[in-house]
């Protein structure tokens, strides 16, 4: 109830929508959500592999944050399908797009401008995000199937990464996730001030 006895409604500032295969993108999504809430923002969260948000769900938030990891050279297709299906509504929003991949653990491939997956993805989706971010993902051989282990091991060997099958390394630059939350919060604040 509000002060006049009416129903209490809270305006949703943003919708955070993610896809994850092994859990690291989900972990980043939850961490980012927590940081955004620390900035006083109200948000919804949706896992595309559970129940995707409806178009109705996306009407209110002015900003939409999309997060997906790379597997076998491409971002998870569930995210691409989501973007294609909801293109019209997404075009009316301020978009934040976040990619997780192991290539981003390397200096020189760790920014939206220099990460080859991010550049290709944005072009392929044909979207115009206001903010883009790239974070390194997690390497955890024990989780992978036999052939995945071999494949990732070869890639790691070529790119100077860990090849020990016991390796379980979180490469995500968590301080950059903090910085992204601050950047999103600032953008949101400026928009609100402009609209006032
Ligand atoms: C089978 C497999 C394939 C992958 N392919 C790539 C790739 O092509 N390029 C890359 O940079 N990272 C690749 N990665 C690394 C993932 O992007 C990274 O592990 C990320 O943290 C996965 O996110 P998730 O845990 O949310 O699924 C791959 C990982 C796995 C397990």
- Molecular shape: elongated
CATH superfamily of the largest domain: Flavodoxin domain
Show unreliable segments.
none
CATH hierarchy: architecture of the largest domain: 3-Layer(aba) Sandwich
Give the CATH class of the largest domain.
Answer: Alpha Beta
| Structural class assignment | alpha/beta
Number of helices: 6
The count of strands amounts to 8
How far apart lie the N and C ends?
26 Å
Give the bound compounds: flavin mononucleotide
Write the layout of secondary structure elements.
Elements: E1 14-18, H1 24-38, E2 43-47, E3 63-71, E4 74-75, H2 77-85, H3 87-90, E5 94-101, H4 116-125, E6 131-136, E7 138-140, H5 146-158, E8 168-170, H6 174-195
Parallel strand pairs: 1-2, 1-3, 3-5, 5-6
Antiparallel strand pairs: 3-4, 7-8
Helix pairs in contact: 1-6
Would you kindly provide a written description of the structure presented here, covering whatever features stand out?
By secondary structure, the chain is of the alpha/beta class. The protein has two domains: 14-137 and 172-188, Rossmann fold, CATH 3.40.50.360; 140-170, no CATH class. The chain contains six helices and eight strands, in the order E-H-E-E-E-H-H-E-H-E-E-H-E-H. It has helices spanning 24-38, 77-85, 87-90, 116-125, 146-158, 174-195; strands at 14-18, 43-47, 63-71, 74-75, 94-101, 131-136, 138-140, 168-170. Strands 1, 2, 3, 4, 5 and 6 form a six-stranded mixed sheet that branches. Helix 1 links the parallel strand 1 (14-18) and strand 2 (43-47). Helix 1 packs across helix 6 (174-195). The protein is elongated. The two termini are 26 Å apart. Flavin mononucleotide binds at residues 20-25, 69-73, 100-103, 137-138, 144, 148, 152.
